[in-house]
């Protein structure tokens, strides 16, 4: 299956981001957007047209962009600092550490086109290290919404949250997974599918693929639980421990290197509190070859069928 | 405060800094001596701040981007009433909130946590932009070291500040010509700084950074050029006021021995007479 979304209506989560940001911006004049010449790729044209003075384009200068965000927060504004995730998190990592995390600045870091969304543009433009980098910092929740609905919920949450956070958005179209009335809760997993044989934990664009994989497993008589774990830090430790205790095996799926991301975060909880066999799917610590975003996920063993195969193999390790 | 009063206060702050470095056995005494006159003028003549309400929304902001000279800021903040004067003796002690670089979460009066160089000016641009968006007239001051101007992030911020017409932003470059390990001119010779800033669209003024009249005049609101951010290139001496430290690259973070301490203190006290 090269395209797991065949027949489904796909949504670009950036649209949900900007429509909510524009609505929030109408109610709260303290909300500003900061970007690095990324008005188009961050889909901020609507925000700019509605609130031209509140769209702060610093140009191609990501270190300054994050510092400006911290200064705006000091002056009482609520900045959403938007840029392609590899440049936001990679180029400006020390600003994120010192100016946002350590200084406890109320800056919303919005990583656009994260993961391997830039596909064929190659590893310079992939952001498959950002969970690991930002998760290592105190004071900055790391959140990867799964679909249009969760993206909208996360943006509403972020605007109300007093503190910095990192929101990891994609540009790859995904179908709806969560119910329309979904409310995001920091550090809470969503039980998308109950099951007792194993648990699949995923976030971002992998949540929908994991749901299809669970259906494939169901057809083979395997009852997989699926948890959507948008909040990578803080992680829902109780849900992970419950999954370990109740299903005895955990498979994680993420559009990120397997070094330090969601799988690692889940494994830390499992090792400390409820050891069970695990398999961590992701990019296996290499720079990706040339391919589209969806093909790369397939090539790295994260097509729904391959996720199901990994689940079957994991079950054989379960005692 | 008159310039004479400010100079006397700066001398007191120098002596307290010297004592604290000597007692703590660590610190960045050279860069502290070079920046103390500027800090004193800002807090006791120029800036509108409220020690009892350090987060007052309309306060003027200072970002000490050369965060390694935190001790000088701590002493100024204690003189101003933000923190108790006796707390200076805890500098660098186990679990003291006065560590080697300033922390806004722990120390009232500190605006942002600095330490890695090249962070303060971008934050200052954001602060000044916030004031403009809010329609408020508070000012933002950023102090960088001259060696720090090698960091590319400063030049990103210099571009943006001019583009945004941030005439409520003042950058003071503590131009003491020395960095940790060498003279700036022997590393990346940034001098002359003024034409570089002017070329980026800033209004620039060069002063003697130890002359209180010149410092106060350059910082006064009357010297602002409408629509342009202002840079004050303050020509200073690392180790100012202490003969064997002054303009000596060895004294970036060296600690005086007892004999040197006594001589330094005697020189600073002698300057009061």
Automatic annotation (TrEMBL), chain A:
SUPFAM superfamilies: Thiamin diphosphate-binding fold (THDP-binding), TK C-terminal domain-like. SMART domains: Transket_pyr. Keywords: Thiamine pyrophosphate. Its cofactor is thiamine diphosphate. Residues 11-176 form the Transketolase-like pyrimidine-binding domain. PANTHER family: PYRUVATE DEHYDROGENASE E1 COMPONENT, TRANSKETOLASE-LIKE PYRIMIDINE-BINDING DOMAIN-CONTAINING PROTEIN. Belongs to the transketolase family. This is Transketolase family protein.
TrEMBL record, chain B:
InterPro entries: THDP-binding, Transketolase_N. Keywords: Thiamine pyrophosphate. It holds the Pfam family Transketolase_N. Residues 8-253 form the Transketolase N-terminal domain. CDD domains: TPP_TK (cd02012). Coiled coil: none annotated. Signal peptide: none annotated. It comes from the Bacteria. Its cofactor is thiamine diphosphate. SUPFAM superfamilies: Thiamin diphosphate-binding fold (THDP-binding). Belongs to the transketolase family. This is Transketolase. It comes from Palleronia caenipelagi.
């Amino acid at each position: 299956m090269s395209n797991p979304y065949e027949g489904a209506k796909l949504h670009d989560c950036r649209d949900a981001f900007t429509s909510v940001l524009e609505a929030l911006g109408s109610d709260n004049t303290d909300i500003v957007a900061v970007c690095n010449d990324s008005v188009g790729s961050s889909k901020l044209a609507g925000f700019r047209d509605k609130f031209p003075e509140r769209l702060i384009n610093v140009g191609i200068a990501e270190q300054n962009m994050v510092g400006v965000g911290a200064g705006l927060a000091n002056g009482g504004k609520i900045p959403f600092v938007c840029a392609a995730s590899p440049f936001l998190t990679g180029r400006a990592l020390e600003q994120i550490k010192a100016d946002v995390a350590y200084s406890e600045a109320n800056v919303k870091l919005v990583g656009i086109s994260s993961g391997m969304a830039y596909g064929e543009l190659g590893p310079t433009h992939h952001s498959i290290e950002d969970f690991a980098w930002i998760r290592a910092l105190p004071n900055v929740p790391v959140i990867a919404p799964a679909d249009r609905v969760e993206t909208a919920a996360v943006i509403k949450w972020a605007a109300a949250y007093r503190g910095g956070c990192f929101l990891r958005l994609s540009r790859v179209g995904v179908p709806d997974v969560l119910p329309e009335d979904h409310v995001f809760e920091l550090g809470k997993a969503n039980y998308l599918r109950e099951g007792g044989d194993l648990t699949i934990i995923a976030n971002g664009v992998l949540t929908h693929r994991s749901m299809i994989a669970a259906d494939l497993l169901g057809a083979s008589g395997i009852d997989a639980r699926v948890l959507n774990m948008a909040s990578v830090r803080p992680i829902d430790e109780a849900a992970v421990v419950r999954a370990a205790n109740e299903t005895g095996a955990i498979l994680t799926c993420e559009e990120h290197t397997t070094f330090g991301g969601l799988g690692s975060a889940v494994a830390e909880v499992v090792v400390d509190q409820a050891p069970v066999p695990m398999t961590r799917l992701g990019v296996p610590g290499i720079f990706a070859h040339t391919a589209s975003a969806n093909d790369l996920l397939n090539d790295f063993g994260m097509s729904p069928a391959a996720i199901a195969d990994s689940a079957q193999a994991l079950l054989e390790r379960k005692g | 405060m008159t310039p004479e009063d400010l100079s006397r206060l700066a001398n007191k702050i120098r002596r307290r800094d010297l004592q604290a470095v000597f007692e703590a056995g660590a610190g960045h005494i050279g860069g502290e001596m070079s920046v103390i006159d500027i800090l004193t003028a800002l807090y006791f003549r120029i800036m509108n701040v409220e020690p009892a309400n350090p987060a007052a929304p309309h306060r003027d902001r200072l970002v000490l981007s050369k965060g390694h000279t935190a001790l000088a800021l701590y002493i100024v903040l204690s003189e101003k009433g933000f923190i108790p004067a006796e707390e200076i003796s805890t500098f660098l002690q186990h679990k003291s909130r006065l560590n080697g670089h300033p922390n806004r979460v722990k120390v009232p009066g500190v605006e942002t946590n600095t330490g890695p160089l090249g962070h303060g000016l971008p934050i200052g641009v954001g602060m000044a932009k916030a004031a403009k968006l809010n329609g408020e007239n508070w000012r933002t001051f950023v102090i960088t070291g001259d060696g720090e101007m090698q960091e590319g992030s400063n030049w990103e911020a210099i571009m943006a500040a001019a583009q945004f017409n941030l005439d409520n932003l003042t950058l003071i470059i503590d131009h003491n010509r020395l960095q940790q390990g060498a003279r700036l001119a022997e590393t990346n010779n940034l001098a002359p700084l003024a034409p570089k800033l002017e070329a980026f669209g800033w209004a620039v003024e060069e002063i003697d950074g130890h002359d209180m009249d010149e410092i106060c005049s350059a910082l006064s609101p009357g010297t602002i050029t409408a629509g342009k951010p202002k840079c004050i290139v303050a020509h200073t001496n690392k180790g100012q006021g202490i003969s064997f430290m002054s303009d000596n690259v060895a004294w970036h973070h060296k600690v005086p021995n007892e004999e040197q301490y006594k001589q330094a203190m005697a020189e600073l006290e002698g300057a009061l007479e």
